[in-house]
Amino acid sequence: MDKIIDLGTYIEKGINALESNLSFLWSAIDDGISWMVESMNDVLLAIPFWIIITVVAALAYYLSAGSKSLTLEGFKKSIGITIFTILGFILIYLMGYWEEAIQTTTLVLVSSVIALLLGIPFGIWAARSNVADAIIRPVLDFMQTMPAFVYLIPAIFFFSVGNSPGVIATVIFSLPPAVRLTSLGIRSVPGEVVEAGYAFGSTESQILYKIQLPLAMPTILAGINQVILLALSMVVIASMVGAKGLGSVVYQGIQQNDVALGFESGLGIVILAIILDRITQSIGTKK
Amino acid sequence: MYMEEETRNIKIKVKDLSLIFGKNSDQALEMLNNGHSKPDILEKTKCTVGVNKANFDVYEGEVFVVMGLSGSGKSTLIRCLNRLHKPTDGQVLINGHDITKENNKELLETRRTEMSMVFQNFGLLPHRSIIENAAFGLEIRGEKKEERLKRAQKALDTVGLQGYEYQFPSELSGGMQQRVGLARALANDPEVLLMDEAFSALDPLIKSDMQDELLAIQEKVHKTIVFITHDLDEAIKIGDRIVIMKDGIIEQIGSAEEIMTNPASEYVEAFVEKVDRKTIITAGSLMFDKPMVVQYEKDGPEVAMRKMRTASVNVLPVVDKNKKFLGFVWLDDLIELNKNKIKKIDDAIRTEVHSIHKDYTVEDMLPLISDKKSPLAVVDEKDGRLQGIVFQTSLIIEATKFDKNQISDLQEQAKEFFKWTK
């Protein structure tokens, strides 16, 4: 069938114009992201693997048990995830994917932090203004329904191959839950509590920081959990544009039709996903 | 009481206050000013009239109750007082300054220092301890931590919550949570307390406790309280004056007794019909004021009997020259004296009668009824001067008839009835 409207061409022209006119901006972003990812990688890889395993296991235990850390009840509740963390990491190490796992974790953390730094303020804005909400909502729908692979194309266009396009594509893909759940959390703060805040003479920022954000925190934390898991799934796809880590091993397995390689790296991703999920979930349900 | 009020300071003055919800509020306001009704305005402009030209004054130190059913605009009205809703038209003067015209900074200052609010569902912060909740208002206006905790503690002591300081709202019952809400409002030491259906979410027993508690606290702190409720019994119990609202319009303002005895509209009448009048109607409204009296040491039996004939009664109160009440004399006793040619009425004065004060309710007076059919003398609390008399027949009619006949009619009937007895 013939094309009657050539929408894609217009988008392409627009992207081209953006690329050539704002090239200093793209290279600055590229440098910034590369620096963050590489320095974090270097630091984490410089630390012996058993220290990282101990610290993460302790963190998992503490976050899961909370104030009951030293009681039998807390021990029963948290021992499972702690043992899983230790054994999972040791397995990854023994399979020889420690470096890749660290690279993946770094990409997930950097992307998630950027997504949260962008997403939470947008969520606050969407919660406090109906106009902003009306604009942001369809944009989020668009971001979530557009197939994830599509983001890779402009990302390469702006940043060529490597970690930066991977991080950018991951940020775009994992941003929506941060916005949505922040907005939802703030909007579901009981109206009377907010009214009480105003009645006692609170300014807008006092309302936000003393009432809305603390009360919305469980929902926002659920959003953070979602962002991290989406980031992990996207980081694997981002290996197609040269992002390093376990994803690139999976990609290699696909290209070489190597079942062993694919299974091992896939298992590594599952282990990481479970650990990240349990840890971030327990932050949300602590109190 | 009501004479005194005229000279009391006006704390809140509401002038022609209207609030219209909706986009075409200008058009709606114009229609309202031209006397169109609420449904008309809704149909033409899609705007809802929340408050319709409200006018009232709240005096310093009184409990002013706004009462109405849901949708009557009472909650909207109270939110206009601290501008949680911005009125479409009219003025709200707090201590003489118009809150509707204040800029943002002035408005915050007014809310922080002059008025606090208590909410129906408490509006507490679940992530903060009780004492931190009570200190919230002080925190907002920037008091130092030590100072605000000290004052919050004092407020918690006032509402009887010592020992709960470091618990969380979810660990407390509804009544206790509302005490926290009250403590939070008191901690700011505002002049005005706005209470929006403050006790409506509580169990009946707890509710009654909280009402008593509020009245006890009010004895100590003497705040100006604007209290919203849909419960007429509550309004009568705690209100010095009551406003009855319907469809955003103020139907009547007055003391509970004024509203009961003289309802301004059919709506108010239907409302007050269900209330137990025995606890509302007082001696002040049942009595004959300026009754004919017998002057002690001046009037003899002859004069006294002539006075009885003029008034068509067979019993009269006796007062001294300072109008102090001494007792009643009865016609048959006077006839007896006359027969024995005694010229002084001393022996005929019956002193074993009840004297009461103006604020006695029918319920208080009923046990005083005796088979002698003696009237009750209403005397001044301070100097014992006679202010009026209440006939037992008026009392009995008032106690048994739960209808809306006006008290003046009752008094006429009582008088007639009295003539026929004896």
Commentary on this structure:
Helix content of chain A is 84%, strand content 0%. Chain A is mainly alpha-helical and 287 residues long. In chain A, helix 2 packs across helix 5, helix 5 packs antiparallel against helix 6 and helix 5 (98-128) packs across helix 11. Chain A is flat and about 65 Å long. Chain A starts with 6 loop residues before the first helix and ends with a helix. Chain B folds into two domains: 2-114 and 191-201 and 226-275, Rossmann fold, CATH 3.40.50; 283-420, CBS-domain (Roll). In chain B, strands 6-7-8-3-9-10 form a six-stranded mixed sheet, sandwiched between helices. Chain B has a four-stranded antiparallel sheet with strand order 2-1-4-5, with helices on both faces. In chain B, helix 2 (25-33) packs antiparallel against helix 3 (38-45) and helix 15 runs antiparallel to helix 16. The longest helix of chain B is centred in the middle third of the chain and has 18 residues, at 204-221. Chain B has helices at 2-5, 25-33, 38-45, 74-81, 104-113, 130-134, 136-140, 145-158, 174-187, 204-221, 232-238, 256-261, 266-272, 283-286, 301-311, 331-339, 362-365, 392-400, 407-420, and strands at residues 10-21, 48-59, 63-67, 89-94, 97-98, 115-118, 192-196, 224-229, 241-246, 249-254, 288-289, 294-295, 315-319, 325-330, 355-356, 376-379, 386-390. The two termini of chain B are 37 Å apart. By secondary structure, chain B is of the alpha/beta class. The chains are: A mainly alpha (287), B alpha/beta (422). The A-B interface holds A 190, 192-193, 195-203, 206, 210-211, 214-215, 217, 287 and B 82, 84, 107-112, 115-117, 119-127, 136-137, 139-141, 184, 188, 194.
